[in-house]
Amino acid sequence: MKGAIAAFAAAALDYARSKGSDLPGSISLLITGDEEGPAINGTRKVLDWMAHNSERPDHALVGEPTNTTRLGEAIKIGRRGSLNGRLKVSGVQGHVAYPHLAKNPVKGLIAALAKFYDAPLDFGTAHFSPSNFEVTSIDVGNPATNVIPGQAEAAFNIRYNDRHSPDSLEAGLLEQAAKALANSGLEFELCFEPPSHTFLTEPGPLDSTLSQAVREITGLTPSLGTDGGTSDARFIKAFCPVVEFGLLTATIHKIDEQVALSDLTQLTAIYRRFLDLYFEEFGIYELV
């Protein structure tokens, strides 16, 4: 992502120098932190400030990594939503030699999680890959090997497509947990964090213009996809059409995250060519 920031800053500066006072529109560089997690103080607040000050962009291009093995493979025109949740099961603590005097919450937690995994959420839609449920952590906090714990908790994430809403997913998980734990004597609590919503920019002139720039520079015709993680495009889509194109995802979030210098050079050329094509196509507009 940081490589893309350097690339689009360099491309925008070069374009502005080439046009001088004849710049046929405006280019805003929106660069913030706080994209991961709750994302409270980053792009969302800047966009609100822009709207309050009548600085509403016409289109947006996000430099999030989008390519798997080679630069030019894919443009993102949307993203699946993300829903984080925690399931806490409460039982009765006791000695492992006297299980009849205890109620083991771990058994209930496993049963509920198995229920969540039991069937696919869906098989994908026209523009989106299938939704998926994944457990990310199981915590008991029990250092003793001869004690049945009183509580067990799991964290999970759902990446969901446009067949679902956060409300429908939450209701479905609540129903499944209740069925899995019925007659177990165990209690449970299911809670969720604020979701990231699914979105789609319908294919049109914006992605076509970007595809042309990619094709001219790399010789590849990029696919239009929605897979991968979330990005700040989930906030921008409420203000204007947005697409994403950036570097490779091969080492994303790894300790040795890296990018080839040749890819940085090529990405800068793609952004630079896109600016030419964009203002030829759309006239006097604001691109962020």
List keywords for this structure.
Alpha-Beta Plaits, 288 residues, four-stranded antiparallel beta sheet, 14 strands, alpha/beta, Aminopeptidase, elongated
Structure report:
The structure is a single chain. The protein has 288 residues and is α/β, with parallel strands linked by helices. It folds into two domains: 2-79 and 198-287, Zn peptidases (Aminopeptidase); 81-192, Alpha-Beta Plaits (2-Layer Sandwich), CATH 3.30.70.360. Helices cover 34% and strands 20% of the residues. The strands form six sheets. The protein has a four-stranded antiparallel beta sheet with strand order 7-9-5-10, covered by helices on one side. Helix 1 crosses helix 7, helix 3 (105-117) crosses helix 4 and helix 5 packs across helix 7. The longest helix has 22 residues, at 261-282. It is elongated, with a radius of gyration of 24 Å. The two termini are 16 Å apart.
Discrete helix count = 7
| CATH architectural type of the largest domain | 3-Layer(aba) Sandwich
Using the coordinates shown, work out and report the CATH topology of the largest domain.
Answer: Aminopeptidase
- Hey, roughly how much beta strand do the residues contain? 15-25%
Q: Helicity range of the residues? A: 25-40%
> What would you give as the CATH superfamily of the largest domain?
Zn peptidases
The biggest sheet, with number of strands, parallel, antiparallel or mixed sense and barrel status, is: 4 strands, antiparallel
Radius of gyration: 24 Å
